[in-house]
Amino acid sequence: MKELSQVKAQNLGDSLVFIGKSFLDTPYVEKTLEVGDTETLVVNLRGLDCTTFVENALAFTSMLKKEQADFGNFVKNLETIRYRNGVLDGYPSRLHYFTDWIRNNEQKGLVRDITSELGGREHKKAINFMGTHRDLYPFLKQDKNYNAILKAEAELAKESLCILAQDEIQSNEHLIQSGDIIALATSIKGLDVTHTGIAIREADGRIHLLHASISGSVRITKEPLVDYLKNIKSNIGIIVARPTLLSP
Predict the structure, then answer these.
(1) Of the candidates 29, 86, 23, which has an alpha carbon nearest to the alpha carbon of residue 56?
(2) Is the pTM of this model over 0.90?
(3) Cβ 212 vs Cβ 197: under 8 Å
(4) Burial letters for 45-64: b for 16+ Cβ neighbours within 10 Å, e otherwise?
(5) CA neighbor of 125 nearest in space, from 168, 163, 95
(6) Separation between Cα atoms, residue 45 and residue 66, nearest integer Å
(7) Above 80 in pLDDT, residue 167?
């Protein structure tokens, strides 16, 4: 909350970057939401994975835009961002696939998928990793949850992905703004995205990635995003969502 009071930003993107940078060096912790026997709204600012980093930064930015300063407001914003249609209703209501996360938060008016505007092209791909790897997800031991996830994946199958190919990012990098949410599209079967973070234009004039890195903590990539992606074998490009936070 103290960090919020110090934000002096020109726009939403700069606000998101400022708040994202306030998490620098926060430890990376995987599966931070997989706790307990039932789905609850987990608030964890001491350990972040790539998605919860983006969600927390976006929830605080939403507070800033609405001039809120109460923890209850933060919790409500987080629930709105994390769950389908903004309502926590069990494990299946969480937006597990990041393309689904972008799509649903676009419907809420919180972000806008701008990948096609950057030169992205349509891809058809079956998104069913959870359904085909049930043993990796403790909550899917329950048939009710598993069947609900299969149903959600069937809905996802009707959608296509728009991806800016890895070899086309550099020529369109000037269109990416600080504060844009970057999702790393993957060739891994059944998965849409393997990682996410926040675009940040550094002193070298290039777009880098501010993210909760599996290497240990929240950090900014030393190399530009384009070069960072080349070291990820399964990466095929990016999906870009611009924060709008237009919802009430």
Answers:
(1) 23
(2) yes
(3) yes
(4) eeebbbbbbbbbbbbbbbbb
(5) 163
(6) 21
(7) yes
